[in-house]
Amino acid sequence: MDPVDRPPPAPRTGSQVIELALEAVRREGGRSTTTRRIVLEALVDAGEPGVTAEDLADHIREQHPTFTSSTIYRCLERFEELGVISHAHMGHGPAVWRLIDQPRWYLVCTSCGKSMDADPTLVERLSSQLLRTVGFRLDGHFALTGRCA
Amino acid sequence: MDPVDRPPPAPRTGSQVIELALEAVRREGGRSTTTRRIVLEALVDAGEPGVTAEDLADHIREQHPTFTSSTIYRCLERFEELGVISHAHMGHGPAVWRLIDQPRWYLVCTSCGKSMDADPTLVERLSSQLLRTVGFRLDGHFALTGRCA
DNA sequence: ATCGCTATTGCGAGTAGGCCGCAATTGTCG
DNA sequence: CGACAATTGCGGCCTACTCGCAATAGCGAT
């Protein structure tokens, strides 16, 4: 196949992400359990822009009624430590979880509650200015709040 | 007195703020109670950069042991509606309350927990860009989070 | 295939931060 | 002073997690 005709690198499929994550767990001395696989599957299913832990739990319990919330929280925590997933706080209410793909800057409206993405280049401009002037590196762990149009 | 010798407008004193706030309550059909006065006094005492509702409650209860948290929350809520005070969320943990003086952009470090102020002009640059491009008006209701130096 | 070790899970209780209903109290105004 | 409605104290409730503990189940070794 000619190089110029080669398609762009395919994004990892959901199941690739899952296998890689479970391998990572094992490398760190953890165990690859069916519970963890199910949580990852549900998270892959949920896709962007992310789900709350309780929504994930409800979704999973449709198929696996014995799942408890604490298990979900602990699985999510573990995968986050491994750098596979992350969570962000969207104003009031529960955090949302998603696979780590691209860094993301959420804007959430404190009035209507809807959220959207900010243009990363705009936010990163502020970010680099803060870094230069006061050594503070913004993360997107909390959404930027305000009022939408 | 000659105009050029006139001192700059004095910042409002704490007790002025309190009287103005209580007048505002009454204009809206509310009541100027000693409870509300005490809450305002404690808030003025606390000063910048703000206090949590529970710290305020603890402080007040040293002098007035019967105060309950719910009363504090309701007073704060009322004064916020009137535009006299405001609260902001500093990452995890309780909100902080303060008199409204200048708009303020908090930076809080998700690692060490310390908070500082961002240069307003930097943040307002982002704010106006977001407003122009997507009609979103940032507020400082949630702090900007990241890592400090 | 089975054993033993220990990571993980289910269960249920606990926690922080805040909100709510209701009866008793207390400003306000006539 | 009296009536009325706003406010307060009390206590319980709520959401979003977090934790301790005993039972379960991966995983490497046999």
Structural commentary:
Two copies of one chain form a homodimer. The first copy, chain A, has helices at residues 14-27, 34-46, 53-63, 69-81, 120-134; strands at residues 85-89, 95-99, 106-109, 115-117, 137-138, 144-147. With 149 residues, chain A is an alpha+beta fold. A three-stranded mixed sheet of chain A has the order 4-3-6, with no helix packed on it. Chain A has a two-stranded antiparallel sheet with strand order 1-2. In chain A, helix 1 packs antiparallel against helix 2 and helix 3 (53-63) crosses helix 4 (69-81). Chain A is globular, with a radius of gyration of 18 Å. Strand 6 (144-147) of chain A pairs antiparallel with strand 6 of chain B. The structure holds a DNA duplex (30 and 30 nucleotides).
Briefly note the structural class of the backbone of chain A.
Answer: alpha+beta
Strand order of the biggest β-sheet of chain A: 4-3-6
Overall mean pLDDT score of chain A? 90
Spans of chain A of at least 5 consecutive residues whose pLDDT stays below 50 are: none
List the helices and strands and how they pair.
The structure is a homodimer of 149-residue chains.
Chain A: H1 14-27, H2 34-46, H3 53-63, H4 69-81, E1 85-89, E2 95-99, E3 106-109, E4 115-117, H5 120-134, E5 137-138, E6 144-147
Parallel strand pairs in A: 3-6
Antiparallel strand pairs in A: 1-2, 3-4
Chain A binds a DNA duplex (30 and 30 nucleotides) through residues 26, 29-36, 52-54, 66-71, 73-75, 93-95.
